Amino acid sequence: MDFPRLLETDSKSLRSVNGSRRNSGSSLVSSSSASSNLSHLEEDSWTLWGRIVNEWEDVRKKKEKQVKELVRKGIPHHFRAIVWQLLCSAQNMAIKDQYSELLKMTSPCEKLIRRDIARTYPEHDFFKEKDSLGQEVLFNVMKAYSLVDREVGYCQGSAFIVGLLLMQMPEEEAFCVFVKLMQDYRLRELFKPSMAELGLCMYQFECMIQEQLPELYVHFQAQSFHTSMYASSWFLTIFLTSFPLPTATRIFDIFMSEGLEIVFRVGLALLQMNQADLMQLDMEGMLQYFQKVVPHQFDSGPDKLIQAAYQVKYNAKKMKKLEKEYTTIKTKEMEEQVEIKRLRTENRLLKQRIETLEKESASLADRLIQGQVTRAQEAEENYLIKRELATIKQQSDETVTKLEQAENTIRELQQQQQGHKCSSRYSEDFVLQLEKELVQARLSEAESHCALKEMQDKVLEMEKRNSSLPDENNIARLQEELIAVKLREAEALMGLKELRQQVKDLEEHWQRHLVRTSGRWKDPPKKNTVNELQDELMTVRLREAETQAELKEVKQRMMELETQNQINSNHLRRAEQEITNLQSKVQHLSVQNKGLLGQLTESKRKQAEIECKNKEEVMAVRLREADSIAVVAELQQHIAELEIQKEEGKIQGQLNNSDSSQYIRELKDQIAELNHEIKCLKGKKAFSGPHTFDGIHIVNHLIGDDESLHSSDEDLISNHVQEAGVHFHLHRRTGQVDLNPAVLDSSGSDTENTEASGTIIHKEKNQKRAESYSTTV
Questions:
Q1: b/e 642-653 (16+ beta carbons within 10 angstroms → b)
Q2: Residue 194 is inside which H or E element, if any?
Q3: 78-187: which CATH architecture?
Q4: Mapped to the 3 state alphabet, what secondary structure does 543-580 carry?
Q5: DSSP per residue over 618-686, as a string?
Q6: What does the alpha-carbon distance between residue 109 and residue 156 come to, in Å, rounded to a whole number?
Q7: Which of 136, 148, 205 has its CA nearest to residue 182?
Q8: In percent, how much of the chain has pLDDT > 70?
Q9: What pLDDT, on a 0 to 100 scale, did the predictor assign at position 583?
Q10: Fewest CB within 10 angstroms: 145, 336, 452, 521, which?
């Protein structure tokens, strides 16, 4: 910008420029300057704002009112970025250096921000394309602020404010300005999750409508058209969602300078200008009116709206008073809600207790009735058993008596038999008859004893059943209560008898009084006076009797109530005692359950350890078995190789003792056949299943001396054979083959000797095939 260079000429030119700035500023404030050229006015405004920006600190301190007037007239588009930063003091914030670090972090609100980005200024070229630069920088700023202020996080309306800032300045500067707006312009309180500040603004705005537009307020109340239905977006987005961008930007200029006051003014001005139309509409019509008609009323220019806004009466002191009233109302509401919640909780607990007591009372009544029925049945059974026992005792006594009589009779008869010698036949028959009667008597006595014992066992069993009944204490208490009730009833009967006696006395007195009053007209005056006094005394006695009767009734009622109260208190006490017992049982069972769960967990852990150990042991056994099988196979392989080497050594020794070419060819053929047999044996061993050998017997018929055949290889073979459990039997036979003397004595021989030696070797080969090698696997 060229303004600093213009101001650096000299002090005089600087003073003249300052004077012209002040003159032009005063002319703009008073709105009295006139110019014939619009471009000249714009150039003058640009020059003025450029000088204000360059000398911001001095101008802000000395001419704050003039700056406010200039802001109300509108900030030039190219100056908005720097002027907004200067108005909110956001040009040198420390948080600007943290912006890049914040973008590297992760915010919990990222999904919400991504979801709402497409809804922010969907018609604007800077934001309408998906994943465009505008949407990306908007996401960055909102994400950074959600990390700085985690209490607020993200609110949908704040995206429109950030979008407007991004239209004017880079994202880092927009972030700083937005942080300043949230901290110093009450926006943070508006966007908190509780939105308490928004409720305060709605209350203040509604009070302003009630005071300045009472008819419209009454219409809104009649239509149930609440203030939050149309004005909440005004405060949350500073009219950015209610007006086109030129009008909303002018209002935002004033908001940056004066705060939320402009929102109250513009909102009330809108209602004043549209009051007549709104009075004719219902609730849905008013909503449509605010959404479709109001936004396009000021497309030609917002000056008319701003002028109307500053004609609205706005009293800051009254707004403070309304704020205090709202705080008081909310505090009372919170206290009432807490009290209501507490009362509801207490009511719910009391209802639960009443239901519990009713259930317990019903169960106790059922148990009492059941106990009484059981007692009645047992009493009846006891009565029957006692009757049977008495009958059996009586029968037993009769039997004992008869037995004694029979014994006496026997003794008498024996005495008679001794005294009088009767016929033997008659005495024997009589004795047999007596013995039969005695046996029958004893049998009946034994039966009586058995029946008596059975009855006694039944009595003991019934006593045990009575002692094992669970509600014996309750029945004892009920019996005590019944005794108390009977005592009170006896007292009441005694009182009733006393009352009856008093009534009888009063009736007698009344009869005597009637007798006296019948001859009153014959008596002298003095006697009449005495009679009157007696009448009064009688009346007093009657009243006294009535009073005493009433007193007795009251006492009787009081006794009944006390009895009922005592019964209820006993019920409650027993119920509480049972509840305590049940709670102790529940605690004991819970402790026992915990112990059992612990034992179960420990047993499961031990079982798992045992299973792991078993698996490890099985795996170790299998590994050892596999290692043993591998060792056996290696030893067998090594034994076979050593045997082959041994045979090759033998054949090589034979070749060294013979120079015949035919003999060499035969030996080679023999070696080839032996190799073929070894391969066949190896193939059979591979298909024979597991690597186990019942026995290997190899018989060798060797030719030559013992000294030439034994070597270190044979010793090594014998050692391996002993370790692997495989037994080799070597049978050496000498002198089985007779070689040609010419072959043994000299190296040179003729053709005949060669043929003879070849024939001998061929015989030896056949003999070896037939006898020398026999292998058993």
A1: bbeebbeebbee
A2: none
A3: Orthogonal Bundle (1.10)
A4: HHHHHHHHHHHHHHHHHHHHHHHHHHHHHHHHHHHHHH
A5: HHHHHHHHHHHHHHHHHHHHHHHHHHHHHHHHHHHHHHHT---HHHHHHHHHHHHHHHHHHHHHHHHHH
A6: 11
A7: 148
A8: 74
A9: 87
A10: 521
Q: Any idea which residue has 């987005």 for tokens?
A: 237
- Please count the residues of the chain: 777
Cα separation, 124 vs 417, in Å, equals 150
Count CA atoms closer than 13 A to 709's CA, side-chain side. Answer: 15
**Any idea which of 217-231, 373-387, 429-443 has the lowest mean pLDDT?**
429-443
Task: Decide if pLDDT at 597 tops 80.
Answer: yes
Contact status, residue 314 vs residue 265, Cβ threshold 8 Å: yes
Asked if residues 199 and 258 have their Cβ atoms less than 8 Å apart, the reply is: no
**From 50-64, 245-259, 409-423, 424-438, the region with the lowest mean pLDDT:** 424-438
- The whole-number pLDDT of residue 661 equals 63
Instruction: Quote the tokens at residue 630.
Output: 């591998």
Report the amino acid identity of residue 379.
Answer: A
Q: Which distant-in-sequence residues (6+ apart) come within 8 Å of 122 by Cβ?
A: 128
Contacts of 451 (CB under 8 A, 6+ apart): 388, 392
Question: Rounded to an integer, what distance in angstroms lies between the CA atom of residue 691 and that of residue 630?
Answer: 8
Is residue 9 a contact partner of residue 18, using CB atoms and an 8 Å limit? no
Long-range own/partner contacts, residues 690-694 (CB < 8 A, 24 or more apart): 690/629, 691/629, 691/632, 691/633, 691/636, 692/632, 693/636, 693/725, 693/726, 693/777
Contact between 83 and 48 under an 8 Å Cβ cutoff? The reply is no
> Contact, 233 vs 268, CB < 8 A?
no
In 3D space, the residue among 729, 730, 720 whose CA is nearest the CA of residue 636 turns out to be 720
Residue with tokens 């002191």: 317
CA distance 620 to 622: 5
Q: Are 574 and 364 in contact (CB under 8 A)?
A: yes
Identify the residue whose tokens are 């795996």.
619
The Cα-based distances of 191 to 233, 751, 754 in angstroms read: 12, 125, 122
Other Cβ atoms closer than 10 A to 184:
13
- 195-314 topology per CATH: Cyclin A; domain 1 (1.10.472)
Q: Where are the domains of the chain?
A: 1-73, 78-187, 195-314, 333-468, 475-604, 657-772
* Whole-number Å distance between alpha carbons of 130 and 453: 104
Q: Tokens for 157?
A: 């309306």
**Tens digits of residue pLDDT in 375-422:** 888 888 888 888 888 888 888 888 888 888 888 888 888 887 776 555
- Unique residue bearing structure tokens 């015949």: 660
Per the listing, tokens 């009219």 go with 239
| Torsion (CA) 192, 193, 199, 201 in degrees, nearest 10 | 20
- One-letter-per-residue 3-state SS of 302-359: CHHHHHHHCCCCCCHHHHHHHHHHHHHHHHHHHHHHHHHHHHHHHHHHHHHHHHHHHH
Q: Which of 191, 101, 91 is closest to 150 using CA atoms?
A: 191
Can you give the pLDDT at residue 562?
79
d(CA 688, CA 680): 12
Q: Residue with structure tokens 């049998």? A: 443
Cα(634)–Cα(569) distance, integer angstroms: 96
List C-alpha distances in Å: 554 to 193, 258, 560, 562: 65, 80, 10, 12
CB-based contacts of 738-744 (< 8 A; 24+ apart in sequence): 739/658, 743/658, 743/659, 743/660, 743/663, 744/657
pLDDT in tens, 154-179: 888 899 999 999 999 999 999 999 99
Element (H, E) at 92: none
Q: Which of residues 454 and 135 earns the better pLDDT score?
A: 135
Q: Which residue has the tokens 């705005």?
A: 205
Structure tokens at 260: 């939320």
Beta strands in 94-199 (DSSP E): none
- Enumerate helices (H) and strands (E) in the chain, giving the number of each: 29, 0
